[in-house]
Each structure stands twice: as C-alpha cells, then as structure tokens.
Structure to design on (216 residues):
C-alpha cells in the first residue's frame, strides 16, 4: 500500500498552487476531515451532487487560482433542493466549475502556515471566517508542533475559551490533531504559505472547509 506521504507528494508535484478539490484531497491524505463535497460542471451534475450530500448545501465558485470567493459573490449558503439550479446558473457565470459542500455548523477557526526565512515553518492559529484580518487574535508556533504546544496556542489565541464557552461540547482534540497535521504537512511538502479558513469545529470534529496552498 502507498504511504500517505507518497500520495501527497504525488498530488502536489510541480504545482504552484492547488485547486480547491486538490487541496481537499490533500487534507484527507493528512487525516484532516472535510465536509462532504463534490464538484459540478453542469446543472444536472450540481443537482446530483447536492442530492447525494443532503440539504441544505453550500455552493461556491471553484476557480483555478485561489481567490477571495465571498468578495466575488461566489459563495451561497443555505441552498435547498429547489434552488440548486438557479444558484448553479448564477455561479457558473463566474466559474463553470462549482464546488458543493455539506453545510456545517460550529466555531470557525483559522489555521495558517508560512515558511519564514528566519524561523522556518510557522503555524498560526486564530479566529476564522471572513473577518480573520480584523480579529487579530492569532497565536504562532514553530513546526513541529506537538500536543502541549498546540494546547498552548489554543489558550493564547482564546480559541480554547471560545470552544468551551456555554458547554458547547466542541471537539477540541480534533482541532489539536489538525494543528499537528498542518505543522507536519507544511514541513513535509515545503509549503510556502497556506490557510485553512475556516476550519469548522463542532461536536463531531474539525472540518477543513476552505483551503489555500501556495508553493514556490
Ligand atoms: P472565501 O473565504 O473564499 O470567501 P469560503 O469557502 O471560506 O470562501 O466561504 C466563506 C464563508 O462562507 C465561510 O467563512 C463560512 O462562514 C461560510 N461557509 C463556506 N462553506 C461553508 C460550509 N461548508 N458550511 C458552512 N458555512 C460555510
Ligand atoms: Mg475562506
């Protein structure tokens, strides 16, 4: 059997960035869960994929290069069965390829990775979502990160407090495992820059919803 790391190297070989569906596959290779997802390039396919995921779904443009999809009006949440056709028509004017995802609930967390010329690979953890730039509660750790340090990052960034507020029972261990996996992935694949934004954390686990990866 192929070791996970070999299939990851195969997937990223020669690429400058990953397309959304490639990034989702890379997450899965590293044991990071994703929402149920599929790609559609026609109305019929969109209907079929959305039916197999279950409603409501989230539909979003699937560009070849990472872009800020919300800014391009390229993300539609809460899509019900009778809306799939219209939403596909609307989004396919921007990109023919559309990603359809299971709609998740939970806390939106940001996990980033950068390669710093001085410090080497660094992992960033903070609040996620479309306001990540304004929230500024990011904590930093150097790769490789192990459990104790991952826990510290969650304390420092206040994510621990947000996860445990109001007895939500969100799965903090899954988040810790995800941070450790990202810290390993950026070194393994010599990633220049990546973001998971958001990673949804809920009672079922941690799920990478939107992933951007840049190589040299
Ligand atoms: P971008 O960051 O390029 O604008 P995202 O895929 O991150 O696009 O989507 C923007 C926002 O839409 C997310 O921060 C989240 O609030 C919401 N969203 C996107 N996908 C999902 C999903 N599968 N389930 C629930 N909410 C989602
Ligand atoms: Mg995003």
């Amino acid at each position: 059997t192929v070791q996970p790391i070999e299939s990851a190297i195969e997937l990223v070989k020669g690429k400058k960035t990953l397309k959304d569906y490639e990034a989702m596959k890379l997450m899965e290779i590293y044991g990071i869960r994703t929402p149920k997802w599929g790609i559609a390039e026609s109305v019929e396919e969109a209907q079929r994929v959305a039916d197999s995921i279950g409603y409501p779904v989230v539909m979003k443009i699937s560009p070849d290069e990472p872009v800020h999809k919300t800014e391009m009006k390229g993300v539609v949440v809460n899509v019900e069965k009778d809306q799939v056709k219209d939403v596909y028509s609307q989004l396919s004017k921007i990109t023919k390829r559309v990603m359809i995802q299971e709609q998740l609930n939970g806390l939106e967390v940001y996990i980033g990775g950068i390669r710093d010329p001085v410090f080497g690979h660094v992992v960033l953890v903070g609040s996620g979502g479309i306001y990540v730039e304004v929230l500024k509660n990011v904590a930093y750790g150097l790769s490789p990160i192990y459990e104790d340090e991952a826990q510290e990052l969650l304390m420092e960034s206040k994510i621990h407090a947000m996860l445990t507020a109001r007895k939500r029972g969100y799965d903090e261990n899954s988040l810790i495992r995800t941070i450790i996996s990202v810290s390993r992935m950026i070194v393994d694949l010599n990633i220049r820059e990546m973001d998971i934004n958001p990673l949804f954390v809920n009672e079922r686990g941690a799920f990478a919803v939107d992933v951007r990866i840049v190589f040299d």
Summary: The CA atoms of residues 127 and 133 lie 9 Å apart.
